[in-house]
Every structure is written in structure tokens, then in C-alpha cells.
């Protein structure tokens, strides 16, 4: 629930695996991913931030290493294109779109 609190009420999360909108769907998707995962290393680097009033566009780069409960490990590298809005003084994700650039170990997931 802490993770989903960083999204607007109608926030959207898109990737090669999913497209969900709203906190209820976001939380269900997040919990669904974790049913098979035991741990994740998530490393992120900000590429750019453009602020215009109460809106911002952010590009960040991510490296993820996921260990599944069955012992399998897969690795991803990609980037997020985020739209943020400031609500009540806090910056929240209105949209997070992930583009995978490199994947390793996905073939072991089938």
C-alpha cells in the first residue's frame, strides 16, 4: 500500500507485462507480481526532469534483478517515462510507462 500511495487515484502503470489504472488495479497487480517473487534489487538513475507548474515529466533508467520463489533469477534494464502531478504539496505519479531495453533470463519463466 505504501508503493501505491505514490500514484494519483487514477494513476496508470504500463510495461511489457501490464497496463493498469487506479489504485485498486495497481495494488492488485503489484501483489500479483509478488506472489512469485522473493526479492528484487531495483537500481534507478534520473535522466531528466522537466517541471511546468504542478506537472512534471521525468525520464529515469532502471536496472532490476528479480529472484523468484522457485530460485530462478531474471534481469531487466530499461527506462521509465513518468508524468507527475503535484497534489496537496506532494508529487504523485499520474502515469509510469516502462520500456524494457534488455532482458536476461526471461526464457526460464515460461
Structure at a glance:
By secondary structure, this protein is mainly beta. Strand 5 and strand 6 form a beta hairpin.
Helix and strand arrangement:
Layout: E1 7-14, E2 19-21, H1 23-34, E3 37-52, E4 55-68, E5 73-87, E6 90-104
Parallel strand pairs: 1-6
Antiparallel strand pairs: 1-2, 3-4, 4-5, 5-6
Structure notes:
By secondary structure, this protein is mainly beta. About 10% of the residues lie in helices and about 65% in strands. The chain contains 1 helix and 6 strands. Strands 2-1-6-5-4-3 form a 6-stranded mixed β-sheet, with helices on one face. The longest helix has 12 residues, at about 25-35. The protein is globular. The chain starts with 6 loop residues before the first strand and ends in a 6-residue tail after the last strand.
Provide the spatial order of strands within the biggest beta sheet: 2-1-6-5-4-3
Report how far the terminal alpha carbons are from each other.
29 Å
Count of alpha and pi helical runs: 1
Shape: globular
Tell me about the largest β-sheet. 6 strands, mixed
Radius of gyration: 15 Å
User: How many β-strand runs?
Assistant: 6
Mean pLDDT: 95
| Unreliable stretches covering 5 or more consecutive residues | none
Helicity, in percent?
A: 10-25%
Order of helices and strands: EEHEEEE
Structural class: mainly beta
Strand fraction band? over 45%
